[in-house]
Design brief:
Length: 498
């Protein structure tokens, strides 16, 4: 059995020369790169198998397209996500560091706080909303078995009923407990959460088919007729929406790929977790949604409502609790781990991984997400504004690593706050990355707020990524020439891992 105290001591000694302003135990290069392809596969399962993923997959079949057209859109979109995930994974896996730290390459050792805080705030808002949705599911379970609790749903404080506060508090604590035990506990949790949802989804699909028969299932859930031009536009839009839906966890995928054994394992996990998994989940989803139209006379895209209509109380309870588990899974991997590393990066000696995550958790309560979620206009503009940053940040990160740094990571320099550090720049901020970010984000904001540009708002991620990468590639073109002439890998990955 390994001596963990000795391992921790050796890791501490190896990191002793790193600046305390840039490093703590959580941000330092990990020595435990033991995640297999299945762990990465489970990560994507947890990300896909959520109430949000269910609604998104079902919505594509209501666009008036034929089933083969929808499946083609899903396949193309998810393959784009897979390619991007492999690209984002590589620098963090090589260096063993999270997204916030690898951003120091492009933005500077202190400038990396800019993308870290932006990503943290996006997760901040979504964490509260997902917790609220899971709390609603728990409330349905309680009311199903304990109708006497109904009076507690009337009186409210800050927009949430007494029972709502109780359920929200329970979900908040459950997620905090899993998170508090660290990444190993999170890994074990998502290994179970994703597959568990498949069991419930397949069982629910089987129940639907049993009730309606195969004649009641249609893979085209809309009767409207579209012209060839309208079909083409809907297909392009659906493809873009798939990428946009995964843009958040895609950006900080390095937080998880840092634990991968090697890139071959990560690519295999991405291959099974994205194209294969997403298409299978989508087909099962459509069987269920299509069946509800035949069975109940209306199309139900909310999985919680569908499960609640099953006659057997025990089946309802198991189904809803599994949905709750799935929501906890996606909330932790997409909206808890990210701000934990991001906020820790801002002040490593004062904010640990746990503290950073709890800042997001406490902040999500202060945000009163139920009020935010019940105001579609407010949440639309808030998340659109934050989302306008994701594309440019993605483009700058990849352009810097692949086009400017030529796929090299100087690990020691990521934690060097002196002028000798390769990623120091002036004052610790890289003005070229910031100069590329501002106009790229500005265009995304214009697209979000001008009604006449609404039709291209779904493509803001692609536009932002292209602009961010293009601007940065041009501004940093001389740095690429310098990188080509570097012969020694001072503090390189190879040296770091010896």
């Amino acid at each position: 059995m390994p001596n963990h105290s000795t391992a921790a001591s050796k890791a501490s000694e190896a990191n002793a020369h790193y600046s305390p302003r840039l490093c703590n135990e959580d941000l330092a290069p990990t020595r435990d790169q033991n995640w297999s392809w299945y762990n990465i596969f489970s990560f994507w399962m947890s990300d896909v198998h959520s109430m949000g993923g269910y609604v998104v997959a079902a919505s594509f079949f209501t666009l008036g397209l034929a089933s083969w057209q929808v499946l083609l859109c899903l396949l193309v979109g998810i393959c784009i996500v897979q390619i991007c995930a492999n690209l984002v994974a590589k620098p963090s896996q090589m260096a063993g560091v999270p997204y916030a730290v690898i951003c120091r390459q492009a933005f500077g050792v202190f400038g990396a706080n800019i993308p870290a805080v932006i990503r943290g705030l996006i997760a901040f808002a979504w964490y509260g909303i997902q917790t609220y949705l899971a709390a609603n599911a728990l409330m349905l379970v309680l009311l199903k078995f304990f109708p006497a609790l109904t009076p507690m749903t009337q009186a409210g404080w800050l927009g949430l009923s007494q029972l709502g506060w109780c359920c929200f508090g329970v979900m908040w604590l459950l997620q905090a407990m899993v998170f508090w035990h660290g990444m190993s506990a999170i890994k074990r949790f998502i290994d179970v959460a994703g597959p568990a949802v498949y069991v419930v989804m397949v069982a629910l699909a089987g129940w639907i088919v049993y009730k309606t028969g195969f004649d009641g299932i249609s893979f085209t859930l809309a009767s409207k007729q579209l012209s060839v031009g309208e079909q083409t536009w809907q297909m392009i839009t659906a493809t873009a929406l798939v990428v946009s839906y995964f843009s958040g966890p895609l950006l900080n995928f390095g937080d998880f790929s840092r634990y991968g054994k090697n890139m071959a394992e990560i690519r295999r996990g991405n291959r099974w977790g994205l194209p294969f998994n997403f298409l299978l989940f989508s087909v099962v989803t459509v069987v269920i949604v299509s069946g509800t139209q035949s069975l109940f006379g209306r199309m139900i895209t909310d999985p919680i409502e569908t499960v609640s209509m099953v006659g057997n109380d025990l089946a309802v309870a198991i189904g809803l609790l599994t949905m709750i588990t799935a929501t906890i899974g996606i909330n932790i991997v997409a909206n808890f781990v990210s701000p934990a590393f991001d906020f820790s990066n801002c002040s490593p000696q004062k904010i640990s991984f746990r503290t950073g995550g709890m800042i997001a958790a406490v902040g999500s309560v202060l945000l009163t997400p139920w009020n935010l979620f019940q105001s579609p206009e407010l949440i639309h503009y808030t998340l659109d504004v934050l989302g306008s940053f994701i594309g440019p940040l993605f483009g700058i990160l990849l352009a810097d690593f692949y086009l400017i740094k030529r796929s090299r990571v100087y690990v020691d320099d990521l934690f060097d706050d002196t002028s000798k550090g390769r990623y120091w720049y002036r004052g610790g901020f890289n003005p070229k990355a910031i100069a590329a970010l501002l106009p790229s984000v500005g265009i995304g904001l214009v697209i979000s707020f001008i009604p006449s540009l609404h039709d291209i708002a779904n493509f803001s991620w692609f536009i932002g990524a292209a602009l961010g990468a293009g601007c940065y590639r041009y501004l940093a073109r001389h740095e690429r020439e310098e990188a080509d002439t570097v012969a020694d890998y001072r503090g390189s990955v190879a040296v770091q891992k010896e």
